[in-house]
Amino acid sequence: MSLNKQSSAIARFVLQTHEDAFFVGHSLHTFAQARNYSDAQLAAFLGCNIDSLSRAAMCRCPSYSDDSYDDHVRRIATLAGCDSSRLDQVLREAHGIAALRGIGTHFDNATLLAARDRECETKDGAQREEDKQDRE
Amino acid sequence: LRAQSARFILSRDADQSNRDTGGKKMPGANEWERRLNERLIAGDPIAPVELVEQLLDTIVLELKARFPREPDEDFHTDATIEAFAAYIKNPQQFDPELRSLKGFLVMAADGDFRNMLAKRRTLRVHETSVENVEVFEEARNMHTESQNSANQPEPLDELISREGSVEYDQFLNKNFPDSLDRQMADMILGNERSTEQFAKILGIEDRPSDVQQRVVKQHKDRIKKRLMRLRKQDHESE
Lengths: 136, 238
Known about the structure:
The structure holds 2 protein chains of 2 kinds. In chain A, 63% of the residues lie in helices and 0% in strands. Chain A is an all-alpha fold. The radius of gyration of chain A is 14 Å and the shape is globular. Residues 108-113 and 118-123 of chain A have low confidence and may be disordered. By secondary structure, chain B is mainly α. Chains A and B meet through helix 1 and helix 5 of A and helix 3 and helix 4 of B.
């Protein structure tokens, strides 16, 4: 992730988020690794500039089981200036990967199902809510 | 668990310090700090960004001012990051009535910095070369005797464990008035083993390596003897 226009301390913090599932940075890193994306490619996928990735990385990762999940994703997307549905996709896919690898994440077990659900890319918030209720 | 108990001690100390001021309340957190703390507790996903962008650099600078002699600048940053991450994940540990958030984070980063120093020291002791075994064995034996008798670390050991602190600097300044000796003592206490590093301090890095080794050894032996003497005096004064 690009660390331009940041202090070295903040840049180091961002790097640390890659290793910590509490932060969105972990999901961004996992997703980018899985798809073999560079920072520029990840930023393009999310529809933001490279510098914004760092701000998104420092956010707390929203919990899928939380009622506020959609709202949290939107707020992070607004902060980072990226596309919220793409960010949602990144979070789902990354946590699905982590779950398959057996790594504990800030998400929950429902994520595994969500990750398998490739249709999520095209679903809007209402459809996702229905899915969530079905699973519960 | 250790981090939690360290933070409990910090919070307890703050409580004690309130009592020490005769019940006079210490200034607590400002409005921004209180709100941010509430947002973190409520799970606001973007609150960590605000915290990091507003305070991380400031706390790193505070820590550098507290431990100016630590040569590895990443050490200050890593300790601060550790403190921030711990607070972000567990914001309830901060009590806005007791102190400012900035003050709390400085204290937490200070604690993490000392823990990191202690870990590094332990690692270095395990890596101690044969050259240093005699000195450190002696030190360890004396330390063990002292612990057996009083079950407490000696003041000098305690002081040395605070490498980089103001007290540590005062100890070096007092006992090693010569700046070369002081630097070498600092390196020996930090378990620096590279002849090359000592040779640089002594300004003989361009000399042949056998000469470097001989001269460095002479100086190191002299400093080590002085350190052992200080430790012995410290032990006897107990």
